[in-house]
Amino acid sequence: MLIAFTLTPVGVGESFPDEIADAVEIIRASGLPYRSDSMYTMIEGEWEEVMDVVRRATEAVAARAPRVQLVLKADVWPGRPGGLLDGKIGAFERHMADRGQ
């Protein structure tokens, strides 16, 4: 399973690095494969472990903010071995290379 999610603390002003840093520490400590960019964090793993990380990260932000918005997108692929985080990008890059781009 691959999860893409974003947490937005509401009611803490325009800059909120400490609230997000708490969530990132939980994600890093999970040991699950992950990748973050300017809009989302993607985490790969089994349903229970991935959702536990999302829950704990959300709770960490909620401990510092009066409200938290969570946006979550999941790619549930039963029976698929790991490697989705890099595998999907690799497959796309190979496709583009085959097209000469």
Question: What is the topological layout?
Answer:
Blueprint: E1 2-10, H1 17-29, E2 34-36, E3 41-44, H2 47-62, E4 67-75, H3 84-98
Antiparallel strand pairs: 1-3, 1-4, 2-3
Helix pairs in contact: 1-2
Pfam family, one: Thiamine_BP
InterPro entries: MTH1187/YkoF-like (IPR029756), Thiamine_BP (IPR002767), UPF0045_domain (IPR051614)
Protein name: MTH1187 family thiamine-binding protein
What are the key terms here?
single chain; 101 residues; 4-stranded antiparallel beta sheet; 3 helices; 4 strands; MTH1187/YkoF-like; MTH1187 family thiamine-binding protein; Thiamine_BP; UPF0045_domain
Task: Explain how this protein is built.
- This protein has 101 residues and is of the alpha+beta class.
- The protein has three helices and four strands.
- A hairpin with a 4-residue loop joins strand 2 (34-36) and strand 3.
- It has a four-stranded antiparallel sheet.
- It is globular and about 50 Å long.
- 18% of the residues are buried.
- The protein is 44% helix and 25% strand.
- Helix 1 runs antiparallel to helix 2.
- This is MTH1187 family thiamine-binding protein.
- Belongs to the UPF0045 family.
- Pfam families: Thiamine_BP.
- Residues 4-89 form the Thiamine-binding protein domain.
Give average pLDDT, whole number. 89
**Uncertain runs with pLDDT below 50, 5 residues or more?**
none
Main sheet record: 4 strands, antiparallel
Shape: globular
Strand content: 15-25%
Summed up, the helix count is 3
- C-alpha-based Rg, rounded: 16 Å
Give the total of beta strands. Answer: 4
Category by helix and strand content: alpha+beta
Q: Biggest sheet: strands side by side, in what order?
A: 2-3-1-4
SSE pattern: EHEEHEH
Which range best describes the helical content: under 10%, 10-25%, 25-40%, 40-55%, 55-70% or over 70%?
40-55%
- The end-to-end span amounts to 29 Å
Domain Thiamine-binding protein: 4-89
Family: Belongs to the UPF0045 family.
Protein name: MTH1187 family thiamine-binding protein
InterPro entries: MTH1187/YkoF-like, Thiamine_BP, UPF0045_domain
